[in-house]
Amino acid sequence: MQQQTASLVFATNNAHKLSEIRAIFGDKLNILSLADINCHDDIPETADTLEGNALIKARWVKERYGYDCFADDTGLEVTALGGAPGVHTARYAYPDRHDPEANTAKLLAALSNADDRTAQFRTAIALIQNGEEHVFEGVVRGEIATEKRGTEGFGYDPVFMPEGMGKTFAELGVEVKNRISHRARAVAKLVDFLNR
Ligand code: IMP
Fold first, then answer.
1. Residue to substitute in 154, 157, 175, 182 for testing ligand 1 pocket (most ligand atoms within 8 angstroms of CB)
2. What is the pLDDT of residues 35-89, one digit of tens each?
3. Residues near 84 by Cβ (< 8 Å), separated by ≥ 6?
């Protein structure tokens, strides 16, 4: 008999993230999106940490929809800005909406006189499985470029240069990014855990 692939909900509808995660898991795991389980809720992200927000989202799906689930939250932590925008990364430019163009413009302006352009992307993934909660973290260190470069990816990819690469994520492309990114590193820990 053919073995059925296990399913797990990824609490997102972000098409970029879904395809990144599905590429990382391949055919080992059937990843369902929020739309796939008919969840169209605007899940509140009210915690003051990435870990806290990831847990809120995973618990929301488990408690209301009954699925084992994982959720992620990512922040860009810039040294010269004391770790900002951090948990506010998505709504850095405007508190009430996500505008990637405005976010990168605000970041470049905030660093226009900065000598230290170091930063890191950090992802927290919360998994709820078999009644237990687990959190995994992935970090990629790098620098903020002085201008936008490249066309691939999303969000802050045109201004984030991972350490030692000399190019932005948007120049490096999805394949390279998927090997070294914050999310890839957090997902690698999730995969190790699920395969244990
Ligand atoms: P989220 O928690 O994954 O939704 O991410 C919060 C914010 O970080 C959003 O504004 C995203 O655009 C940005 N972000 C998350 N992951 C990435 C990435 O891999 N590259 C660039 N920006 C990202």
1. 154
2. 999 999 999 999 999 999 999 999 999 999 999 999 999 999 999 999 999 999 9
3. 77, 78, 92
Q: Are strands 118-129 and 160-162 parallel, antiparallel or unpaired?
A: unpaired
Give pTM, 2 decimals.
Answer: 0.91
What's the pLDDT at 4?
A: 61
Q: Are 74 and 50 in contact (CB under 8 A)?
A: yes
* Percent of the chain that is helix, strand, coil (3-state, to 5): 35, 25, 40
Does the Cβ of 74 fall within 6 Å of ligand 1? yes
Is 73 a known active-site residue? yes
Q: How far is residue 82's CA from residue 88's CA, in Å, rounded to a whole number?
A: 13
